[in-house]
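Hi V.,

You were right to ask for the full record rather than a summary. Here it is.
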Amino acid sequence: MDVSKRFFSVLAIFWVVFSFFIEVHAAWETDVALKITAKQTAISLDATVALSVAEENFELATTCKATHKKVSSLKVTAKQDFAEDIEGRFEILFDTKSLRSLKLKVSDLPFSKGSFDFETYCKYKESFTLYQVTAGFDDLTVAAIPVSVDLVLREAYLRAKLTLEDDDTLCVQGVWKKGAFDTGKIILAHDEASWSVKEELTYTPDLPLPRAKDGQLTITWEPSDLFSLKVVCEHTFCSNSILINRLTPTMKLEIGEFGLTWQGAYQPQGSALCLGTYTLTLSDTVQTGILTLKTALKIKDDRFYSCSVKLALNT
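Predicted structure:
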């Protein structure tokens, strides 16, 4: 395994910051986390220091992230509540070289009989420019059915989504690139107390409506707080049949803070579905006062894949 001097340097800095916030109590809430992940070929380290303060109608948070190689990012987020439940959000992101992105969002603006969300996203490429504009219309009604509309606009790109939510959910989405229709999706979802089912159909311009190109069926079953099962089936529509491309079941068992997750990937081989790869994850969380220790062991295809230990301090 490749264990460099930077690894121990970041580890030493983490413990200095860790000790400092144990001794010093400030009005700011502090989250300090160190995650060490060991794989077959190397050890990686991720450190996060987050400071936040909240007043009556205002929140401010800064988050600094680093790896064993370098400091990766610094994010500053501010939220302000205004009258009539209107919320403003400001987010600015830096990397090691310069400012990378800026987001400004206003939520729950009164609009007709509903509400309106608006966000601008500025991104740095060769220069700092407006990259994306997002708009959302919520709490609307069509024939007494709750409706929401979401729009995402970038240069030569438009995504529009209409969602109807009654007992079931129907979502219609279209993507246009350079002024031409590129991809369409129809999502049907039904939720019950312990299970849900969702079908996502994808349409392309080369196929006539209502014929879909492919789809993704997701079934979730949660009979108790201890056990859950999720199955994702990716399939393709042919002339007179449906072909399964990939079947991915995920089973989770949670007993207290201990968790066991098994995820497999079945793919067709001839006329049968055969298990290709699988991942088994064992996780546990131990909390004592302001300290939280999270461990996760992953085994992939009968072999050790990774082991991670995350130590967090919350004050």
